């Protein structure tokens, strides 16, 4: 995904303000996994958030990303190795990994080419785990506020036209654009969704949510929105004003009408999210 690979992209902000994932998420993956715990690969690893978690379970962990900028901020570890590379041309031998993960990144891939590579480098009884989250909502807020945050991301007059192709695949929970072929490529597939879009999906209950960040201070919420790749594209156009700042100021005014929020006030958040697990056993 080319925006994240640009030298000017703020990879430190990405590492600091993006949501992390709960132990419940990783345990769900491990409960599904029936292979060994020798080698794991995290694709589109970014700043290494997932590799750090996997390194406590697997003997060796590899992280791969097309962005040298992101890898410069990646979490270090004695059993973690990073390299630059593409999801569609994984630079590894056949049957190299017991687990392959992709967090918040598979929607940018060429699905057909990526799945072909996964099947090539995945070991027998190995697992593919893919997950992501869509636009968050501010819980307990008015419809006007919920719409303002969603509009920021999807309205072409705001940031909607600044996403690279693929964002809509995540918003649709990987149910099209080649991902519908997953059950034909693997003989054991589980899908978790919240909220449920696919009737056969398993629901993610509120008390077992996979996203760690359930709330943010107003200032942190602002910084999170500014990690969006669409915001980076928008700022490169050098247009007057700042659409993220305008959105957050609207939230501050409207969340408690008559009593504007302060920068340190906390916003409760909910995240639409999906987890796909696949294996050939």
From TrEMBL:
<keyword id="KW-0489">Methyltransferase</keyword>
<protein>
    <submittedName>
        <fullName>S-adenosyl-L-methionine-dependent methyltransferase</fullName>
    </submittedName>
</protein>
<dbReference type="InterPro" id="IPR029063">
    <property type="entry name" value="SAM-dependent_MTases_sf"/>
</dbReference>
<dbReference type="InterPro" id="IPR051052">
    <property type="entry name" value="Diverse_substrate_MTase"/>
</dbReference>
<feature type="domain" description="Methyltransferase type 11">
    <location>
        <begin position="41"/>
        <end position="130"/>
    </location>
</feature>
<dbReference type="GO" id="GO:0008757">
    <property type="term" value="F:S-adenosylmethionine-dependent methyltransferase activity"/>
</dbReference>
<dbReference type="GO" id="GO:0032259">
    <property type="term" value="P:methylation"/>
</dbReference>
<dbReference type="InterPro" id="IPR013216">
    <property type="entry name" value="Methyltransf_11"/>
</dbReference>
<dbReference type="Pfam" id="PF08241">
    <property type="entry name" value="Methyltransf_11"/>
</dbReference>
<comment type="similarity">
    <text>Belongs to the methyltransferase superfamily.</text>
</comment>
<keyword id="KW-0808">Transferase</keyword>
